[in-house]
Amino acid sequence: MSCAQLLRLQYLSPSESHSQGWHGVLGAAAFASEARPQAAPLHGGEVDFPLAHVHTPMLGDAREVLEVWRAAARAQPGSHGRVRYARAGDLVFGSLAVGEAEVASAPAPGPRTPLEVATDLAYREMYATLTALDSPHLVRVWNYIPDINLETHGLERYRQFNTARQEASLACGRAVAGAVPAASALGAAAASPLTIYFLASRRAPAFIENPRQVSAYRYPAQYGPRSPAFSRATVLGEGAEATLFVSGTASIVGHRTLHAGDPAAQTRETLVNIEALLAEAERRCGTGALRLETLAYKVYVREPKDLQVIRAQLESSLGRAAALLYLKADICRRDLAVEIEAVGGGGWRSWSG
């Protein structure tokens, strides 16, 4: 059975989630409205699958939503250290959160910031979980970093995160270029924990780069002492039934930001980059006729005042029926107004509801 048949993504309100039940749920992430940024639709004790509580509030009309990943096979829940996980067939979904305050006094080799210590711990525990489950291949990782653009200890916190992620990966024998997962790294509320959730597999995905962009792991030194360790996209499965995971994507060509100060133009450029990834996935993996309007999207908006113009651009390109979830989040570069991630697959028929 293909991964596309195994996986289904839904964006659901808590009431829709309860009405559909939790059968086949592999894992989920909970988001709340901007008016209730610390709210969570569910408590972890109500469910037996990993549930990431993300402190990145929703924008728009909905008050609360769950990003729900379902699998055709029965999911088996478990835990390993701080990681809660569920596995179904070849797939593993996991989540964990690490507060910087709780690790600030922990011994660390060399001068390391609290965020670096938290990131190192989180990634080591994630890798240890995958080793224990014999599911070594990270396919997709979501990272939510409090105060991502704030400079502390002489370095922007996103750059601190990249340094620790790369060092932890190297220490665990993991690649930091080439065979690295699709990923996103977005801002979260101040004082919230570093929150990570991920999809992994026993089977290796294909790693896709965008011919319009420098690979993130090849960025020049001006973007920090260690490069971000992620691929622009990954493909899990084969042919028209494969599933495509598009990393957080923005208005970057080469390695430079385009259209600073123009959120509408940044949105259009971002869609061009996603189209380029669709074409590259088809060329590399024969993924079939994936189109922009058939993907499911999470859209991160830096300034809520820009939501209307960004939404207008997306609905014009994708149609009003597209699966779109809007979140307020700081983005890894201060000159980026919007970042967009996406998932799609030839075997997927319904994205929400």
Task: Describe the protein in words.
This protein has helices spanning 3-6, 14-20, 100-103, 114-132, 157-171, 263-285, 307-318, and strands at residues 7-12, 25-32, 51-53, 64-71, 76-80, 83-88, 91-98, 137-146, 151-152, 155-156, 182-188, 194-201, 206-208, 233-236, 243-249, 252-253, 256-257, 296-301, 323-328, 338-345. By secondary structure, it is of the alpha+beta class. It has one domain (3-345): 60s Ribosomal Protein L30, Chain: A (2-Layer Sandwich), CATH 3.30.1330.40. Helix 4 (114-132) packs parallel to helix 5 and helix 6 (263-285) runs parallel beside helix 7.
In short:
By secondary structure, the protein is α+β, with helices and mostly antiparallel strands. Helix content is 24%, strand content 31%.
Q: Count of DSSP helices? A: 7
Report the radius of gyration as a whole number of Å: 19 Å
Mind summarizing the main beta sheet? 6 strands, mixed
Strand order in space, largest sheet: 5-6-7-12-8-11
Architecture blueprint of SSEs:
Blueprint: H1 3-6, E1 7-12, H2 14-20, E2 25-32, E3 51-53, E4 64-71, E5 76-80, E6 83-88, E7 91-98, H3 100-103, H4 114-132, E8 137-146, E9 151-152, E10 155-156, H5 157-171, E11 182-188, E12 194-201, E13 206-208, E14 233-236, E15 243-249, E16 252-253, E17 256-257, H6 263-285, E18 296-301, H7 307-318, E19 323-328, E20 338-345
